[in-house]
TrEMBL record:
<dbReference type="GO" id="GO:0016706">
    <property type="term" value="F:2-oxoglutarate-dependent dioxygenase activity"/>
</dbReference>
<comment type="similarity">
    <text>Belongs to the gamma-BBH/TMLD family.</text>
</comment>
<dbReference type="InterPro" id="IPR042098">
    <property type="entry name" value="TauD-like_sf"/>
</dbReference>
<keyword id="KW-0124">Carnitine biosynthesis</keyword>
<protein>
    <recommendedName>
        <fullName>Gamma-butyrobetaine dioxygenase</fullName>
    </recommendedName>
</protein>
<keyword id="KW-0560">Oxidoreductase</keyword>
<feature type="domain" description="Gamma-butyrobetaine hydroxylase-like N-terminal">
    <location>
        <begin position="54"/>
        <end position="114"/>
    </location>
</feature>
<comment type="pathway">
    <text>Amine and polyamine biosynthesis; carnitine biosynthesis.</text>
</comment>
<dbReference type="InterPro" id="IPR010376">
    <property type="entry name" value="GBBH-like_N"/>
</dbReference>
<dbReference type="InterPro" id="IPR050411">
    <property type="entry name" value="AlphaKG_dependent_hydroxylases"/>
</dbReference>
<dbReference type="Pfam" id="PF06155">
    <property type="entry name" value="GBBH-like_N"/>
</dbReference>
<dbReference type="InterPro" id="IPR038492">
    <property type="entry name" value="GBBH-like_N_sf"/>
</dbReference>
<feature type="domain" description="TauD/TfdA-like">
    <location>
        <begin position="166"/>
        <end position="407"/>
    </location>
</feature>
<keyword id="KW-0479">Metal-binding</keyword>
<keyword id="KW-0223">Dioxygenase</keyword>
<dbReference type="GO" id="GO:0045329">
    <property type="term" value="P:carnitine biosynthetic process"/>
</dbReference>
<dbReference type="Pfam" id="PF02668">
    <property type="entry name" value="TauD"/>
</dbReference>
Length: 426
C-alpha cells in the first residue's frame, strides 16, 4: 500500500482544489513564498522529502502535525497551541493521496488519524506555505527568522572607534529608524550612546522605548552618586573595576542605561570592554582555558542592608543550540564574587584560576578598552551580559558626578529587534 501511495503521489501532477483555511494560517504567506518552488521527491511512514528550489529537505510527519497553524490547533486570539506535542500519535501520516503540493507551492496534508484522546474524529487538514517550509528547511534559515544570523561584531579599542555609535535622543524616541539603529548597534556591538538627553527621569523613557523597566532592590531607576555609607561600590568615588551588574540574580538584566546628569569632577572616566572579543581570542589560542571557563562554577553574592542574593554560574556560556556553539553571554564581576563553593582541593580549581587570569589579562589590555568621559546629557546603553563596564577613581572635591540608571531585560530587546527587523528587512 505504501509503495502504491508513493507512486500515485509522485505521478499525480494535477492541481488539487484549494481548501479555505483560517486567517491564522496565512500569517506564513509572505511575499517571498512565490519565489520558492516546492516539489515532492518521496515519502515514507515517518517523513516527507521535498525539493525546495531543488534543495532536498526532510520533514518528519510528527513535526509537521505539531506545527499546524490552523484555528483548530492555534487559538485565533491568544495565538497559543490548543494541544500538546505528546497528543500526536507516533503512527500519524497523510491519508492515501493526502499529501498535495498546490499550485501556489504550498503543501496540503490530510492526516490519517486524529490526535490522541480527541473526540472529534473528522478529517484534519493542515496547510504549509512555501515560505514556512523554506524557513524550517535548515538551521541557517531558522536562525535568520529569529535574527540569530546577525552575529556579534567583536571589537577592540581601535576598531570600535571607527564606528559611529551615537544617536540623537529625539531620533531614538520619535522615529522607528532611530530606534532600529540603536537596536542594531546593541546587537552588533553591545554598546550605543544617546546624545542630547535632558531631564532627570528621561532615562526611564529611553528604557521603556525598548521594554518595561526591570525593577530591583535599587529601585525602578537609581542614582549613581558618591555617598557616605554606600550600599554598593558604585556609590563611592573609588575606582570600580570591570564587571557586570546583578550576577547574583537568577536572571540578571540584559540592558543597562546610564544617563549622565552631571559630570564635572576630575577623573571618573568610564571604560568598556567587549568580553566576547576577549573570550574569542582565548578560544582560538588556549582552548583548554576557554573550556574550563565554560564549566567551572563561580559564585556571586550580595549581602548587605538585610539582603542576601546568591547565584552560581560559569564564566563563559555558549549557545549550544546554534551552529558552531557561539558565545551566548559572559559572567564576570569580581567585586561581587563570593567565596568559591566548589571543592578547591581538586586540581581543577587551580586550572580554573590560571584560565581566569588569562581571561583577565585580555580584558585588562588597554588595546581592548574603549575609555571616555560620559558627558553631561549623554546616555550610554550597553549589553550587560556582554560588555563589561568600569570607572576610574574621581575626586568629589572638584565637582559633581551624577548618573541615573535603569535596566530592562534581553527578552524585551530581542522582541523589538525582531519586530523592527521584519519591518525594515535589513
Amino acid at each position: 500500500m505504501l509503495t502504491y501511495r508513493i507512486i500515485r503521489l509522485l505521478t499525480n501532477n494535477s492541481i488539487r482544489r484549494i481548501v479555505q483555511y483560517p486567517s491564522s494560517l496565512r500569517l506564513f504567506n509572505t511575499k517571498t513564498q512565490h519565489n520558492n518552488q516546492i516539489k515532492l521527491k518521496s515519502i515514507n511512514d515517518t517523513h516527507a522529502t521535498l525539493l525546495i528550489n531543488d534543495k532536498e529537505t526532510k520533514y518528519d510527519w510528527i513535526f509537521l502535525r505539531d506545527s499546524c497553524q490552523c484555528d483548530q490547533c492555534i487559538d485565533s486570539s491568544t495565538k497559543q497551541k490548543l494541544y500538546n506535542t505528546t497528543d500526536i500519535p507516533l503512527t500519524i501520516s497523510p491519508q492515501h493521496q493526502g499529501f498535495n503540493v498546490l499550485n501556489d507551492n504550498s503543501v496540503e496534508i490530510v492526516w490519517n488519524q486524529p490526535l490522541l484522546n480527541q473526540t472529534d474524529t473528522n478529517v484534519h487538514r493542515s496547510l504549509y506555505s512555501s515560505a514556512w517550509l523554506q524557513t524550517y528547511s535548515s538551521s541557517k534559515n531558522i536562525a535568520h527568522a529569529r535574527y540569530h544570523d546577525r552575529l556579534p561584531v567583536y571589537w577592540n579599542r581601535n576598531n570600535i572607534q571607527q564606528v559611529n555609535l551615537h544617536v540623537k535622543c529625539d531620533d531614538y524616541l520619535n522615529s522607528d529608524e532611530g530606534l532600529y539603529t540603536v537596536l542594531k548597534h546593541l546587537n552588533d556591538y553591545g554598546l550605543v550612546f544617546i546624545d542630547n538627553v535632558h531631564g532627570e527621569f528621561t532615562v526611564e523613557r529611553l528604557t521603556e522605548r525598548i521594554g518595561s523597566i526591570r525593577h530591583s532592590f535599587y529601585g525602578k531607576s537609581w542614582d549613581v552618586k558618591s555617598m557616605k555609607q554606600a550600599i554598593n561600590v558604585a556609590y563611592t568615588s573609588q575606582a570600580l573595576g570591570l564587571h557586570m551588574d546583578l550576577l547574583y540574580f537568577e536572571a540578571p538584566p540584559g540592558l543597562q542605561f546610564l544617563h549622565s546628569l552631571a559630570n564635572s569632577v576630575k577623573g571618573g572616566a568610564a571604560y568598556y570592554v567587549d568580553s566576547f572579543h576577549a573570550a574569542n581570542i582565548l578560544r582560538q589560542n588556549n582552548l583548554q582555558a576557554f573550556e574550563i571557563l565554560c564549566s567551572y562554577p563561580v559564585t556571586f553574592h550580595y549581602r548587605n542592608i538585610d539582603r542576601h542574593y546568591h547565584f552560581t554560574r560559569s564564566t563563559i556560556v555558549l549557545n549550544r543550540y546554534l551552529p558552531d556553539n557561539p558565545i551566548d553571554h559572559i559572567n564576570y564581576s569580581p567585586p561581587f564574587q563570593a567565596p568559591f563553593e566548589s571543592d578547591t582541593s581538586k586540581p581543577e580549581f587551580r586550572q580554573f584560576i590560571q584560565a581566569l587570569q588569562y581571561f583577565r589579562d585580555l580584558l585588562e589590555d588597554p588595546n581592548n578598552q574603549l575609555e571616555l568621559v560620559l558627558e553631561k546629557d549623554q546616555c550610554v546603553i550597553f549589553h550587560n551580559r556582554r560588555v563589561l563596564h568600569a570607572r576610574r577613581e574621581f575626586d568629589t572635591a572638584t565637582g559633581n558626578r551624577w548618573l541615573k540608571g535603569c535596566y530592562t531585560d534581553l527578552d524585551n530587546f530581542k522582541d523589538r529587534l525582531r519586530i523592527y527587523r521584519e519591518k525594515f528587512q535589513s
